[in-house]
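User: I'm putting together a small comparison set for a docking exercise, and I want a reference complex before I start. The sequence is below, and the ligand is threonylcarbamoyladenylate. Could you produce the 3D structure with the ligand included, as C-alpha cells?
Assistant: Of course. I'll restate your input first, then give the C-alpha cells for the complex.
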Amino acid sequence: MKTKILEINPKRIDLAKIKIAAEEIKKGNLVAFPTETVYGLGADAFNEKAVAKIFQAKGRPFNDPLIAHIADIKELYRLSEQVSLVALKLAKAFWPGPLTLVLKKSELVSGIVTAGLDTVAIRMPEDNIALSLIGEAKTPIAAPSANLFGRISPTTAQHVADDLNGKIEMIIDGGKTKVGVESTVLDITIRPVQVLRAGGISVEKLKEVIGQVKISKELEEGFRSPGMLNSHYSPQAKLILVEKKGDTQVDEIRKLASKYKAQGFKVGIMAKEENQNKYNGLEVKVIGKGTELEICATNLFAVLRSFDKEEFKIIIAEGLEEHGLGLAIMERLRKASVPKYEC
Ligand code: TXA
Ligand code: MG
C-alpha cells in the first residue's frame, strides 16, 4: 500500500483536504492525524473492520482498548448513557484538550474498541485538524497513538511515517504537536476518580476542578520500582533513568557513561539545559530547562527518537521534577527504562 501524505496548515485549514481525509475514514480506512498531544491513528469507531485494521497496522494486542475521539459534546451521550455531573464538570473545564475520560460504555460501542471492557475512553482533542476531521467524518474516531506497538509516540508526521509507512492509507501532516505527551487518562466510574495514565492535564489542575484525585496503584508502584512495568514508549537503545538530584545526578551519569563507553557502546545523555555543559566529552541532547516542564514534554519523544536515528545504543536520562507535566514525563521515562545491570 502506498501511504498518501496530506499536508494541512493548522492555522488555515483547507476544508477540501479535510474532506479527502474524512472520505478515507468513511470508507473504513486508516488515517493518521495530528492532535495537540501526539499523532493518532484513526478509524471510524463504529466500523469494527476498520478498527481491527488499527491493531493490525500497529501490531497492538486486541486486549489494549482505544480512545474514542469526539468533536461535539453530543457524541458523549451516544458513547455513554451514564454521563455523570463529574464528567460534565471535567469536560467543561478541559475539553477540547488532553484529558481522556473513562465512562460506562453504551451499547453502540463495540467491544473491539474497548477490548471487551464495559467502559469506554473518550476525549475531545483541541487540535483544529483533528476536530475538523472528526466533524467531517461524522463519526467518533477511534485512535491510539500512531506508532508501532510499544514504541515512542509520534509528535511529527515524519515519526508516523517512520513507523507506519506502507501500512496505512493516509497521514495528515499538520506539523509538530503542541503538548508532546499523551492525554491524561482518568477513570471516572469510581470515586475518588483515578488517574490511570499521567498526561497533558496535570494532577494539580484536575484537583483544582474536582478536589480529590487518586493516582492508580499501577502508576504508584511503577514509581516505586522503575523498570518493572511492561516495556513501553521504548526507544531501540537501552534507556537508563537516573533519578538523583543536582550534582549527585550528574556524577552518577558521568560514571555510568564512562563505564558503558569503555565497553564500546555509543552512549548518549538526555540532559536539562542547565546541565548540558557538565558532560565534557560525552554526547548530550537537551530536553529543555528543568524548570520548563511543558517545554520538556514537547521535546521528550523527538529527542528519544533522534537517539535511535543516530544509532545510540545506550541513553542515560536525567530525571526531572515530578510536578505538573513532569509527572507525565517521568511516567514515560520509567516505562522506557531498563535497570542498569541489564545493559
Ligand atoms: O493523547 C492521547 O491520548 C493520544 C491521542 C492520539 O489522542 N492517544 C493515545 O492512545 O495515547 P493510546 O491507545 O496510545 O493510549 C490510550 C490509553 C491506553 O493506555 C489504554 O489502555 C487506555 O488509554 N484506555 C483506553 N480505554 C480504556 C478503558 N476503557 N479503561 C481504561 N483504560 C483505557
Ligand atoms: Mg500509545
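The chain is about 35% helix and 20% strand. The mean pLDDT is 95.
User: Thanks, that's exactly what I needed.
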